[in-house]
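During the no-cost extension, the postdoctoral fellow (Dr. R.K.) reprocessed legacy sequence entries with the updated structure-token encoder. One reprocessed record is reproduced below for audit purposes.
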Amino acid sequence: MPPAFRGVAPTDLARCDAARSFLQSGFWGSFKARFGWNARAFLVDWGEGGKLPLLAIRRKLGFLGSFAYVPWGPELPDGLPVSDAERSEALAALAAALKELLPPDTAFIRFDPPWTSVGDGVDAPVLLCPFRRSGADVQPPDTVIVGLGRGEEEILAAMKPKWRYNVRLADRKGVSVSRADAAGINAFYELYLRTAKRDRIAIHGKDYYAALFAHAAEARAVPQDLRLYLAEFGGQPIAAIIVLLRGEEATYLYGASSDSMRQLMPAYALQWRAMRDARDAGCLRYDLFGIPPRADGDHPMAGLYRFKTGFGGEIVHRPGSWDFPYKSLPSNLFSFAESARKKVRDMRKSRRKTGAAEGER
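Re-encoded structure tokens follow.
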């Protein structure tokens, strides 16, 4: 008998540390709790598929009440039917059951389902009614994942020729890459501020990134391998990235670069160093974490697509963010406001079309 949703019950947050994704981990839930979110853990009973942990984080919406958010969840058991209709039905049953376990002022619950489709130009999976597309995605639905379960020369060979050239060019030009970790936060954030201004992106305050490293250092039960790599030229920081290694997967979380010396290709050197280190640490995949949905030269982030796809990985599509309304009026009002904010942000970005990838700027 195939797995099917049977029920859900509260559990300890530590149970979520068994999740595949860092976004479903107890580590992530307790970290977000430091910044105004309330983390709640559940155990989902999938019948023959066993019981799997689920992290939901909740936040207030002022007079609209609150909403719950399930980042890259729920994880589904092997053997669950894979059609959009069957998965939507299972997720709707879970959402309805969670309503009874969440505070009564919860206006809606938002899911970023982790199921995927693979390939350039392939449509992403979708959810069906009663789910509705969120006004804006929280996590990037589309990404590039580079396979690390092979030799370094094979990984390089899968890259576009120009990418291999740029990796080696940075080294020839004297760009040095080192692990700075928490000690590099100040240098990283100075570069990140310049990146945000140049590319018109919103970023957190420096305390957010410092707290992320502090929280990773405090994670004793399940160590979190969070790394900050710094590229320098002549002793001057010119680019930096933050990468999380967890189990078989490494995830590129944040990247920053200077307005100058981009011709030295430090972004390529940083990514190559992080990939090699992740491979040496036992990771099988490197998630470049976010691209536009397709190759579109008119997209404000077209340069980001070119930069990340050039590393030769698989293009992976996820459904993005979808809402299951519990209260129609507040959820509709929030959706309208969120959609309006996204349109304004998109207009600002399109006024200044940017490469948005450190190596392309």
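The radius of gyration is 21 Å. DSSP finds nine helices and 15 strands in the chain. The remaining legacy entries will be reprocessed before the final report is submitted.
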